[in-house]
Amino acid sequence: TISEGTIHRLSLYSRLLATLEEEGTTVVSSRDLSERINFPATQIRRDLAYFGQFGKRGIGYEVCALGRSINEILGVHVRRRIALVGVGNLGSALLGYRVLREHNFEIVAAFDNDARKWDRVINNVVIHNPDRLPQIVECEQIEIGIIAVPPQAAQNVLDVFVLAGVRSILNFAPARLSAPRRIKLRNVDFSIELERLSYFLQHECDT
Amino acid sequence: TISEGTIHRLSLYSRLLATLEEEGTTVVSSRDLSERINFPATQIRRDLAYFGQFGKRGIGYEVCALGRSINEILGVHVRRRIALVGVGNLGSALLGYRVLREHNFEIVAAFDNDARKWDRVINNVVIHNPDRLPQIVECEQIEIGIIAVPPQAAQNVLDVFVLAGVRSILNFAPARLSAPRRIKLRNVDFSIELERLSYFLQHECDT
Ligand SMILES: NC(=O)c1ccc[n+]([C@@H]2O[C@H](COP(=O)([O-])OP(=O)(O)OC[C@H]3O[C@@H](n4cnc5c(N)ncnc54)[C@H](O)[C@@H]3O)[C@@H](O)[C@H]2O)c1
Ligand SMILES: NC(=O)c1ccc[n+]([C@@H]2O[C@H](COP(=O)([O-])OP(=O)(O)OC[C@H]3O[C@@H](n4cnc5c(N)ncnc54)[C@H](O)[C@@H]3O)[C@@H](O)[C@H]2O)c1
Fold first, then answer.
1. First to last CA, chain B
2. Residue B93 Cα, ligand 2 centroid: separation in angstroms?
């Protein structure tokens, strides 16, 4: 099975190739790629070969074609419809995050158990009563659920998503959630990003 | 130089060891660790050995001691003081994120160029006029800056942080920023996390 690290690199390659395309570059070698994203060229070639992408000897990879292939591998050539539960500070920030559309992600429905928020529209997304989630997941063909509620409510929200047929979930709440094996659950925690900075600060003087 | 992947794994080990400690586990083998976080035991042993952490043959690692060592390597045994610029939806969510304190991160000052927000207090953090940033960075000994402003303002905010002497920066704005080599800049983009889910959805039927 493919590692989480490999999938992460695919996202980085995808973004780099999109940038190269904007810059008008048509061909790129693994070495050029390596210099721009700071991974060994051997790693890049191995990743791409794993997915059946091979450069032309002495030339490299075609930027457009490779970018398209990687996006299809990532599944971002398909519009992914998302339901968001919890429209507080974080949820509102996610609703306003334009980058999602650029990668073919669209939050099509939002839910909050604060009745004062029902029927409000933020960035063209209506906020609904959570009772309506199962029905809306079905008719909106939602494949991804985002959990942005307080930690004590998160497991309950996950259970509702699973029952409604949502197959993948991004959780922001600091709670250890349990989900059936067939569901892909990913937890997000910015403090991990801060620890990268902390590591740098701790070892700054060594370099 | 150490890879970003290794630092990321250190954060995962740190969290797992904290959990094991809470559960009352005193000794753990690389194999036990491997089963809980889904990395090969060989990788875990290699990472730990790189940092001078060796288990006892036939026994494993002492949970408390290893956890402490890893936290010192990550530099989270030191309270890291943070300044946040941009107290909109995302910034407000970050101010309310209690997990930061648990990992010894503290947002001690916030800044926003919306004058109506000045002197407001959110979670014990005062929101200041950005003009005061250099002075506050110095007297508050701030080592980490967080950028949570709209993309067109982000480079400017980074430049102010750098001038003020902040050495590491976490940027949430979707903008390609340039920073001096000595500054550690990390960009956060949730759409990458969503692409992990998209990959899963795309290949679900293969598994
Ligand atoms: N992963 C990270 O790095 C990170 C960063 C910041 C915040 N967070 C977490 O994200 C979550 C949201 O943070 P926030 O600052 O937006 O909080 P918030 O209090 O502003 O928003 C929470 C929203 O969820 C709604 N809600 C509560 N229970 C609900 C339920 N059962 N069903 C539907 N809606 C419900 C509330 O009405 C509110 O609108 C928290 O768990 C917080 O800890 C995570
Ligand atoms: N990385 C991610 O995955 C992710 C997710 C959501 C949002 N975002 C980004 O985070 C940023 C903030 O999003 P938001 O929803 O909180 O936006 P927002 O509009 O709610 O908040 C922006 C805040 O920044 C302040 N501001 C603007 N220019 C400033 C300046 N020059 N100096 C100081 N303060 C300034 C505004 O007054 C406002 O309070 C945006 O760039 C958004 O694209 C990133």
1. 36
2. 11
> How far, in Å, CA of B4 to CA of B168, rounded?
15
The residue in chain B having the minimum alpha-carbon distance to the alpha carbon of residue A5 is B5
What domain range is A171 assigned to? 80-191
List the CATH number of the domain containing B54: 1.10.10.10
**Residues 6+ away with beta carbon under 8 Å from B139:** none
Tell me, yes or no, whether A33 and A86 share the same domain. Answer: no
A121 shares a domain with A152: yes
User: What is the percentage of chain B residues whose pLDDT exceeds 70?
Assistant: 99
Which residue is closest in CA terms to ligand 1's atom 38?
Answer: A88
The pLDDT value given to residue B114: 98
Domain-embedded: residue B199: no
| Bridge partners, A102 (sequence order) | none
In this structure, the answer to whether residues B173 and B112 fall within a common structural domain is yes
Alpha helices in chain A (DSSP H): 4-22, 30-37, 41-50, 63-74, 89-95, 99-102, 133-139, 151-164, 190-203
Taking an 8 Å cut-off on Cβ atoms, the answer to whether A100 and B167 are in contact is no
Q: Tell me whether residue B50 is in a domain.
A: yes
Q: Which atom of ligand 1 is nearest to the CA of A111?
A: 33
- Contact between A195 and B169 using a beta-carbon 8 Å cutoff: no
The residue of chain B nearest to residue A4, with distances taken between CA atoms, is B196
> Which candidate in A191, A204, A206 is best for mutational testing of the B interface (most B CBs within 10 A)?
A191
> Which ligand does the CA of B93 lie closest to?
1
CB atoms B100 and A170 under 8 Å: no
Structure confidence by residue, pLDDT tens digits, B17-70 = 999 999 999 999 999 999 998 788 999 999 999 999 999 988 899 999 999 999
